[in-house]
Amino acid sequence: MMPHDENWELLLAEYLDQTLPAALRQQVEAHLAECPACREDLSAARAALNLPEPATLAPIPPAAPFLEAVVRRADRAAVANGTAPQLHPRRGLVASLMTRLAENLAERDQAGPVIWFLLSLPIMGALYAPDMRAVVLAAGCLSLGALIEYLVTKEVLMHDPR
Amino acid sequence: MAGSVTDERLMQRLQAGDSGAFATLVERHRGHAIHFCRRMLQDPDMAEDMAQEGFARILLHPGGWSGSSRFTTYLFAILKNLCIDELRWRSRWQSRDLAAIPERPDPGPTPEEQVSRSLDREWVAHAIAQLSPDHRAALILREYHRLSYQEIAAIMGWSDAKTKITIYRARLALGKRLTAEGGTDDAAR
Questions:
Q1: Using an 8 Å Cβ cutoff, are B153 and B159 in contact?
Q2: Residue A13: which of B51, B165, B174 has the nearest Cβ?
Q3: Which of A65, A126, B24, B143 is the most exposed place for a label (fewest CB within 10 A)?
Q4: Which residues on A lie below 8 Å from B16 (Cβ)?
């Protein structure tokens, strides 16, 4: 009688896969003829071969959105870890500065009030300094740029709940 | 993929800073990754989340692949660890929803009908979900992804012998659950 240990389980596994050499296969079959418990186990294990798909698999999402989601996730992790994000095109100096400003402000939860203050400058300038139209226009463009950068980078800065 | 660049070559390019190589790897393997996670977690949304996380980790740390294993081995190892962590987190913090257990199909009068009806998809899914995370991962990789024992051993960090024995035990537990009459849900744990 063969001992029912791990070596025996390995033999049964290979017997099930039909990869046992002939001599060992005959030994296993001789034991199975005498051992109802092993026959029952083998029958149960055989029932779990060639299983159907456990559930109807929905279509795989398209590559481009999936890749974008992966890159966003990697960027969030890189920002959290303080490492450089990858797969982004080089940004210009102004865009980099504006992005850095938006990120710093968002970290301090001050982006909202600051942006609204900057947006209010053109309005206040028009009301109180009508001769400084050039300065007002520059301030308005700067504010709009900060707002756009904040909106663009906002997703990068969203906290991943997991 | 005759004539195309190998996954391992693409990983080397990624390690050298080639972002296009990563995009190609994602395009080739996102299907396998998502299917594996769906089969492990049986939650389509979480499965896609896990697959994204697996690829993101490769992108963040391309140096983590040493080049001594196949890329698919590396990818599945990451996904396996993520899914097993998620399963363990669920088992620790989530109560089982008894209402989610599917109705056991009528076993039928003959053994052949019993096996046939036991292979109802939902029942198979439920039975697989009762396996331990390691058994589940190894069985899914063998049964559905058709990986060799050597590849599965590399993914799981086991010897070839342990891999064969573990998959055999998983089949045994699964088979008993699929064919037993009146078995409880915890019988094969």
A1: yes
A2: B165
A3: A65
A4: none
